[in-house]
Amino acid sequence: xxxIAVNPAKVPALVVEKSTGYWKNVGQRFLRDRVAxxxxxxxxxxxxxxxxxxxxxxxxxxxxxIMKRLKPIGxxxxxxxxxxxxxxMLTRLIVGTKLSLFMGITPVVCAxxxxxxxxxxxxxxxxxxxxLIMRTIDVFYAFPSVLLAIALSGVLGAGITNSLISLTIVFxxxxxxxxxxxxxxxxxxxxxxxxRASGANAFTIVRVHVLGNVLGPIFVYxxxxxxxxxxxxxxxxxxxxxxKPPEPEWGLMLNTLRTAIYVQPWIAALPGVMIFVxxxxxxxxSDGLRTAMEIKN
Amino acid sequence: MFSFLMRRIVYTLPIMLGVALVCxxxxxxxxxxxxxxxxxxxxxxxxxxxxxxxYGFNRPYPEQFARWVWRALHGDLGTSIASGxxxxxxxxxxVSNTLRLALFATMIGFIFGSLFGFVAGYFQxxxxxxxxxxxxxxxxxxxxxxxxxxxxxxxxxxxxxLPPSGAGPGGSADWHWDWEHMxxxxxxxxxxxxxxxxxxARTVRALVADILAQEFIVGLRAKGMTNVGIFxxxxxxxxxxxxxxxxxxxxxxxxxxxLIETVFSxxxxxxxxxxxxFQRDLPLLQGTxxxxxxxxxxxxxxxxxxxxxxxxxxxxx
Lengths: 297, 317
Known about the structure:
The structure holds two protein chains of two kinds. By secondary structure, chain A is mainly alpha-helical. Chain A has helices at about 1-5, 10-30, 35-55, 90-125, 125-140, 145-155, 160-185, 190-195, 200-240, 250-255, 265-290. The longest helix of chain A has about 40 residues, at about 200-240. Chains A and B meet through helix 5, helix 6, helix 9 and helix 11 of A and helix 1, helix 5, helix 6, helix 9 and helix 10 of B.
């Protein structure tokens, strides 16, 4: 109060400096975390592979050869060997990055949007609205995520769209729950009361005061779900419930190569290495972001 | 305490009803006629109508739901369209197989997970801590179905130590705790234990770090208590949460075993679910999901109750 009365000109400058300061600090802390930076670099490489796939790959991912089926790693002309239809493994692993990442990331992005809307609504509204929404969410929480994903895709039928829908439904409840608990905490803070007292309506309060404070933690939580989503999405394809052949996708490649584990075991295991690496990278990135943004779980 | 337990149990009932509703709705979400898998394409109208009558698909949804719940409460989950056997029999055989696998896996995961977690939490930021933390990140990041394949490649197809699939002689219904059967359990159980191991290690590490930073530990040290004594205090304080996490993980494994069971052809619920999906056997699908979800809900309830009994502060908050 005193400060504002004495020197009003100083206040906006102070606020601006503080708000950029937070993100600058986060950036610095993140860059100092070697593990997190390493994870970020791997993810960048994966995205490059996803966007430039066909340009980087030495062969056509769909073109096989009956003469060159299941050749070992290091076979002349095929660095990582060939699959059960004689297609180049390196090519299919690179080109497969696009669809695999798409199948893993899209559900989390959709669930992030829908789940945070649901959770923030429940958290901000409180009372009966909160109870109704959160009890419904609890019902979906009563299903183990793998079971729900497989049951939904099983019922909807195989295919890319159906897998994306069922995985989105799986990730909405956890994101909504996190959003609700963060929003409930923010709602009871003095600055929200102050905004309400000054006559701001609910929409404005949420947009100006709540979103800025809750999106960070929800976002970090969502990044940690990408690792799970990558494993689940590939898992659906592995069961034959996701991507259909002949599209190159890591989970599906594992599925079709499973029959070859007695012939070329290490080739059959290669697509899993890609899923593993991607999943580790997203987990480490999420841990790094959490530490850098000083979020406690 | 008693009122807390009652409230907790009453609170579970609407959840159970909701779960049943979701399972029921799942089947009606399915595109196409539920009888499509058993009816020949040139089936007559009368035959179709008769089967609709037998399975009750021609009644209004609320009535179908009420009947289904009523029968399920009496242990009747309907008849499998594909095999013609009662769904409850099929599900119970499969559940016992999955339960055996999941219990074994949770035990392995809990033992190694809490060991890693304790060591990491005790020697924070040492190399042991870093190694244990890395192991737990690897544990939660690994696509377990792929790990299963890799273990089969190493221990079955290369070293030929352990069988790659199945549940041993006698198939799904004939289990004994002898080596002939046990050796079929080892690979799938190890594969499955990796996820709870990572999660339990993370939780225990955070718990131990948290407890060691509290004032009463400083007090105990000042009093001259030995490390062993302090260790016992840490164990006692971290046990309720660690056990709760273990219980929840067991629930996740029960429902999440489908991928691993597919890799190892383990005759459990995952295998059954897979068959139900690909044969479009909707009553079987519905029944399996219902039983697994109910197991999960009840397990959650039990975990909460045990946790409250171990740590009465939870009931008061």
